[in-house]
Design brief:
This protein is α/β, with parallel strands linked by helices. The chain is built from 24 helices and 16 strands. Strands 1, 2, 3, 4, 5 and 13 form a six-stranded mixed beta sheet that branches. A four-stranded mixed beta sheet has the order 9-10-6-11. Helix 9 packs across helix 10, helix 12 packs parallel to helix 14 and helix 17 packs across helix 18.
């Protein structure tokens, strides 16, 4: 899931009898595990939790490998995996190690809401970590605490303490395992690092053609000059004009550029603020407007979706873009068709108010959260399944494919060249046969700390993306977990503002002059205020201050510290 195989967002489904499927014999009755003393019940433990202790010897998931089917709902209707223990080596190994088969079910947010309302939740639920549905499930007793389950059945479940602390609910219990979670403890333990998707990319071959270098792109003006040179020299590729710059305004391109220019959601007094009201957001709008008026940015950025942008990059028709997710796959396709066409990491640029980009990390609190239904029939097997999926071996199997890796004497992955060749040539076949696509509960810092030292053309980029000394990456947890409660007035305000912003961007950026651009922005800000922006920010600031207190912070933005 690194590239990031991954993953968007959630829900509903009709549950069949498989929802109630239990554990049965897999051939002969398995031998009874050796008894072990039960641990003392933890404080705030769930009295309904099963009481049978896990044996102390060997991995917890091997204590009972009888047949067991669990239902797992992913609140992502685009997720297409089907568990296949016959043809997929990851699934086969998981079944052999644990005895568990997974009935995978998917849906969008509406489907999840329906499941919550009807109480027909599957055994396991995976959804956005910062979603209001997660808190609803926790606060209404619809999922069960993981601490007592882990201590009783899977003491080898490797979960960072900082994750448990961050996800501790109002009742003092911990319910959620997050994917792609980053804390000081698991980063230190696994030699990991923070990541961000807010990065610029340019065609290195075209950059050389216009007589410039990556170093020239580290300021707003230098970046602009490169785009201008591409247009002025009428750069073409395969007989077609190259667009100087293309992004996705349907995503968060405006926010990403504002952050590169120095925008933060914490003001100088330590309060939460809207990025839209910052001077750096205004600077970003003026920059986009200048690009548009000079023909460096076309209307395509307002109309294309992610797959269409990826196609344009893969076809070589884009010189520069912003966001790792827009180019991580398409740059490989472009290079495969033309080894001289390389889309290179170009860092971020500075603006009028900063001399160093300070960029929030990408979802340090995690992308998804996975919870266990309070009525799950086999919570002991589920928590042990999590322990297996969180093991180093299963995590690396999921990333590189079963049989696709070994660990070298330096602790770094050595890839199987044949399997890696298949992964590059036919990702679909590789995934179907070797990969898990099941990183929902895995600790990705394990992948980071064992990532192979490559000697291909992307190796320097891969390292620089996360170790770029020209910028500062900071923990974004305090800012990420400020979503209004579903159904609240503030949630409605946030939805209206988001929809309005999307409509207003086109008018602001395509304005015929810089003065008109600012006038359109002022009008948009006034309308956002009418829609309830101040009320929303006041609500979010309360959550923001609580988040900072949880981490012991006075200021969360490094520029304020």
């Amino acid at each position: 899931m690194k590239t990031k195989k991954w993953l968007a967002l959630v829900l509903a489904m009709v549950m069949a009898l498989s929802l109630l499927a239990g554990c049965g014999g897999k051939g002969d009755t398995p031998p009874e595990p050796a008894p072990a003393p039960a641990p003392a019940a933890p404080e705030n433990s769930d009295p309904a939790a099963p009481e049978t202790p896990a044996p102390a010897d060997g991995p917890s998931w091997k204590q009972d490998t009888s047949d067991c089917t669990v239902t797992w709902f992913m609140a992502y209707d685009w997720y297409g995996k089907k568990f296949d223990e016959t043809n997929n080596l990851f699934d086969k190994k998981l079944y052999e190690e644990t005895g568990v088969k997974i009935d995978i079910q998917t849906g969008d947010t509406d489907k999840l809401n329906m499941l919550i309302q009807t109480g027909k939740l599957p055994d396991i639920i995976t959804l956005d970590a910062n979603s209001t549905q997660r808190k609803l499930l926790e606060d209404n007793g619809m999922v069960q605490p993981l601490g007592p389950l882990m201590e009783q059945y899977a003491p080898d479940l490797a979960v960072p303490q900082s994750m448990r602390d961050w996800y501790t609910a109002k009742d003092g219990q911990w319910y959620a395992i997050a994917s792609y979670y980053y804390g000081d403890d698991n980063i230190a333990d696994n030699k990991g690092f923070y990541e961000t998707h807010n990065q610029n990319y340019v065609r290195e071959d075209i950059l050389s053609e216009i007589g410039m270098s990556i170093d020239d792109l580290q300021t707003k003006e230098g970046f602009l000059n490169a785009l201008r040179a591409v247009k002025e020299k009428n750069i073409q590729y395969n007989g077609q004009n190259v667009v100087p710059y293309m992004v996705l305004f349907s995503d968060i391109a405006d926010i990403q550029i504002a952050q590169q220019l120095g925008a933060s959601e914490e003001d100088a007094q330590g309060n939460f603020q809207s990025l839209y009201t910052t001077p750096e957001y205004r600077e970003a709008m003026l920059l986009f407007n200048q690009m548009y008026r000079e023909g460096l940015l076309t209307d395509d950025s307002f109309t294309v979706d992610k797959s269409q942008l990826e196609q344009e990059v893969a076809a070589g028709r884009v010189f520069a873009s912003t966001a790792k997710t827009n180019v991580s796959n398409s740059k490989l396709s472009l290079y495969a068709s033309d080894n001289s066409a390389i889309m290179r990491y170009a860092g971020q640029f500075t603006g009028d108010n900063n001399d160093r980009p300070i960029i929030p990390a990408q979802n340090n609190m995690g992308w998804t959260a996975t919870l266990v239904n309070k009525d799950a029939k086999n919570p002991d097997r589920i928590i042990r399944l999590f322990a297996y999926l969180n093991s180093t071996e299963a995590t690396l199997d999921n990333e590189w494919g079963v049989g696709g890796w070994t660990l070298g004497s330096d602790g770094l992955v050595v890839r199987n060249p044949d399997i890696m060749a298949l992964r590059e040539a036919n990702p679909t076949e590789f995934t179907a046969k070797y990969a898990g696509d099941m990183g929902w509960t895995s600790d990705y810092t394990i992948v980071q700390g064992t990532y192979p030292q490559g000697d291909d053309i992307w190796s320097a980029d891969t390292y620089l993306m996360t170790h770029d000394e020209r910028m500062t990456l900071y923990d974004d947890k305090c800012f990420a977990d400020v979503a209004p409660e579903a159904g609240s007035d503030e949630a409605a305000i946030q939805a209206r503002i988001k929809e309005y912003r999307q409509q207003a961007l086109g008018r602001i950026i395509t304005a015929p002059s810089a003065e008109q651009c600012e006038a359109e922005l002022d009008a948009a800000l006034a309308e956002m205020e009418n829609l309830g922006l101040s009320k929303l920010i006041t609500y979010q600031n309360t959550l923001f201050q609580a988040n900072k207190a949880k981490l012991g912070l006075t200021y969360a933005y490094p520029g304020n510290q």
